[in-house]
Write a structure and sequence with these properties.
- Strand 8 and strand 9 form a beta hairpin.
- The chain starts with a strand and ends with a helix.
- By secondary structure, the protein is of the alpha+beta class.
- The chain has 2 domains: about 160 residues, Immunoglobulin-like; about 100 residues, no CATH class.
- About 0% of the residues have low confidence.
- Strands 1, 3, 5, 6, 8 and 9 form a 6-stranded mixed sheet that branches. The protein has a 3-stranded antiparallel sheet with strand order 2-4-7, with no helix packed on it.
- It has 5 helices and 14 strands.
């Protein structure tokens, strides 16, 4: 449903009461000034209806791809509101249908131009989700009527499992170490920093940069020796499926931070050992979509 619907607000009810009082005073006491003010305000009220309606006309919303997020984080959906009319559109709110808190306010959209905004909302359960409808609304110009319009967008986004568990990585292939392999071992070379991800060990945070006012960044290390890490769903001694997926997610994050090759084995899919951003997101996507 893309049609524009206009309904009165609570302010309109209070204003209507004032009009009734003015009409009663003008009629009961023969007060010409009350009559004049009554018809003046009634005219303002009637004119505001088409103004509010037209404020949402000729608007189109273009949704861009939402970046994946971990469960418990925020999903950011970039939007572009395009105004195809020659008149400026004012005070437009865009929100997810059924999500009052997931809303952004755009103060002005010039005629023939576009305005950009970003809707942020909590990332819930892991998996692939769809945003099917956005809601545009406005009470411009005087707040007595609200115009609303539902727009279909069909935008998908991905929620990765929440990283949790033991940050110590399993011993890589070819290693004689019987236990977990420390994420930062002797001989590893510092190779830079990247944005800190939830679930990573705090001992890898660049605290000196934080003290200088920079956002949380995680140190990265690389090593030239040692085999690849193999992360196996069935090898984790946990009963809960979500706990296993959270542990695997944490290991993928830590392995990517060290820039060492790693593979992932799930009951339904197996991903060969590799490195890089594409491999990183491939593994996290497999964990997010696991059934």
């Amino acid at each position: 449903m893309n049609r524009i619907v206009v309904v009165p607000t609570r302010n309109a009810g209070g204003f209507a009461f004032i009009l009734v009082v003015m009409w009663y005073v003008g009629m009961g006491q023969g007060n010409g000034s009350a009559y004049l003010l009554f018809f003046l305000l009634l005219g303002v009220l009637m004119v505001s209806v088409p103004k509010t309606f037209m404020n949402l006309a000729a608007l189109k919303v273009v949704a861009e791809s939402a970046k994946p997020a971990f469960a418990g984080q925020e999903v950011s959906l970039p939007l572009e509101l395009v105004n195809f009319s020659k008149r400026t559109r004012c005070a437009v709110s865009v929100s997810l249908s059924g999500e009052e808190k997931a809303s952004e306010f755009v103060s002005e959209i010039p005629g023939g131009k576009a305005a950009r905004t970003v809707i942020r909302f909590p990332a819930g359960l892991r998996g692939e989700h769809e945003i099917s409808t956005l809601r545009l609304s406005s009470v411009w110009p005087i707040g007595f009527f609200e115009a609303s319009r539902n727009l279909t967008i069909r935008q998908h986004y991905l929620v990765y499992p929440r990283p949790a568990g033991d940050p110590g990585l399993p011993a890589p292939a070819g290693s004689k170490a019987p236990g977990a392999w420390n994420v930062q071992s002797e001989g590893d070379d510092f190779s830079g920093v990247r944005a800190y991800l939830p679930g990573e060990s705090q001992r890898h945070i660049d605290w000196k940069a934080v003290a200088r006012g920079h956002p949380l960044m995680s140190k990265q290390f690389s090593a030239d020796t040692g085999g690849a890490f193999h992360f196996d769903f069935n090898a984790i001694a946990l009963r809960d499926v979500e706990a296993r997926l959270s542990q695997l997610t944490l290991w993928v994050i830590e392995a990517d931070r060290t820039r060492r090759p790693y593979s992932l084995r799930l009951p339904s899919v197996e991903i060969a050992a590799s490195t890089g951003e594409a491999h990183y997101h491939m593994c996290l996507r497999a964990l997010a979509c696991y059934r």
